[in-house]
Amino acid sequence: MPIAIGGTTLAALAIVTFSLSFPATVWALDGFGPWTVTGLRGLLAALFAGAGLLAVRAPLPARADRLGLAVIAVGCVLGWPLLTTLALQSSSTAHSAVVVGLLPLATTVCAVLRVGERPSRSFWAASVAGAAAVFAFAVQQSSGGVGLADVYLFGALVLCAAGYAEGGRLARHMPGWQVIAWGVVLAAPATALISVLGLANEPVHLDARGMGGLFYLAAVSQFLGFVGWYRGMAVIGVSAAGQLQLGQPLLTLVWAVLILGETLSPAMPIAAFAVLGCIVLTQRARSTPARA
Q1: Which residues contact 106 (CB under 8 A, 6 or more apart)?
Q2: What is the pLDDT of residue 190?
Q3: Could you tell me which of 94, 110, 150, 162 has the fewest CB atoms within 10 Å of its CB?
Q4: Which pTM does this prediction carry?
Q5: Among candidates 119, 106, 105, 239, which has minimal Cα distance to 169?
Q6: What angle do CA 206, 212, 213 make, to 5 degrees?
């Protein structure tokens, strides 16, 4: 079915863009503090999104959709960026990948609770197996300890999963790009305040790495990547799209080696094949759509 293939492709392309977010955050932290990075990425994304909404004269969201957009603003525009940025100050990219490895499973749980999707038993089994494979690999890559960074990452996981589920739900009747556009615009007052406070209290060192990382986070991670992501979720389902994200931690580790110079574990190929197998199984056992 062409529409299903299109949705899968959109979601997969979004995951590739998201997989660069952690390395881009490390770069951005070379030039800015964590609060400044969080504020500016959201504020710049709001400027891009606002320009797009004005250009097409998009109508204001319906009253019934505003709570969902607020969840997206809190979870994907404020919570996830801030908490992961704080975590990356003291945690390696490999260890932080634990969150992304567990995010698909958390997204499926939110899809069940909020969207009404009903995954099959085989889907649940493959999802849990994939999450376990990524978790085991990420822990093997790191020290395996639990610290403050893990608390940040767990909070980010919960907030982002809720934002993903709401975005996939809203994109069923709203254009995907408008879903994230209204989300970042709604968060703009908060990101503007965070930017001002961050710039006033954190050091700034303007260089190419810091500026490049910040621009990527604002333009791609916070806006453009979500355009295809939410549309893909609307087409193939929140749970099915979310499970494609099992491959994101492995992609992130590849970028960490190529961009940040981190060392790759020999276990990488084994983990890659295990995760790929789980992704194939989840896509074959896609959840059934919610009943009206």
Answers
A1: 157, 158, 160, 161
A2: 96
A3: 150
A4: 0.82
A5: 239
A6: 100
Residues 6+ apart with CB under 8 A from 13: 228
Any idea which residue has 């822990």 for tokens? 139
pLDDT of 104: 81
Q: Residue 234 region, left (φ>0) first, then alpha (ψ -120 to 50), else beta?
A: alpha
pLDDT tens for each residue of 240-268: 887 787 778 778 878 888 887 776 666 66
Q: Which residues pair with 288 in a beta bridge?
A: 118
- Bigger pLDDT: 257 vs 24: 24
Token readout for 199 is 């710039």
Which one-letter amino acid corresponds to residue 102?
Answer: L
d(CA 66, CA 34): 28
pLDDT category at 192 given cuts 50, 70, 90 is: very high
When pLDDT is cut at 50, 70 and 90, the band that residue 140 belongs to is low
Instruction: Output the CA torsion sign for 121, 230, 75, 271.
Output: positive
What's the chain look like in SS3? Answer: CHHHHHHHHHHHHHHHHHCCHHHHHHHHCCCCCHHHHHHHHHHHHHHHHHHHHHHHCCCCCCHHHHHHHHHHHHHHHHHHHHHHHHHCCCCCHHHHHHHHHHHHHHHHHHHHHHHCCECCHHHHHHHHHHHHHHHHHHHHHCCCCCCHHHHHHHHHHHHHHHHHHHHHHHCCCCCHHHHHHHHHHHCHHHHHHHHHHHHHHCCCCCCHHHHHHHHHHHHHHHHHHHHHHHHHHHHHCHHHHHHHHHHHHHHHHHHHHHHHCCCCCCCHHHHHHHHHHHHHHHHHCCCECCCC
